[in-house]
Amino acid sequence: MKTMLFKHKFAVLILLTFLSVLGVQKEVFAHCDSYDGPVILDAINALKTNNVNLVLKWVEPKYENEIKNLFNKTYSLKSGDKEIYQIIEKHFFETLVRLHREGEGAPFTGLKAAGTTAPIVKMADGALNDQNIDDLLSKLNAHINKVIQEKYKNVIELGKVKDESLEKGRQYVKAYVDYVHTLEAIHKGIETDHSSHNH
Question: What is the mean pLDDT of residues 43-68?
Fold first, then answer.
């Protein structure tokens, strides 16, 4: 159990580092506002089973009563007019996700369609669902290695001609800065606590 938990923690760290390197954390970590994200999937299951406790974990305690009241109203209309229920159900999803985002200090820009979640985040969720991190780690490590090697080779090649002209010198500097910043982002990712990142 300890080994599995360590692997999961390590995988999340690598994932966060990888996303930091690509500069896309804010976008992909908003996957909780998509219809195939974990918040709405839990909400759908909660409405199926009439169990509001399945979604309360996604909001701070101060929002619990609001979610409970809205959940009860939504569930009570489940057997009524389908069009009305769909409107109320969507309002419940929107409120749940909005309050979840507010609790993290993040903006809510509306619900996103299923399938809009970044593939890497789907892989991260899949690894947790399957309780198997090996495939994800293998693919992530391979991709990170490829990115770093490409940036490194680019600096080496440009370094050979950097003094031939001002334009080539600037191309070298740009590649050098990109290469170093990538490695700095990886180091920072390892050293930083990511527990407060927005989801």
Answer: 95
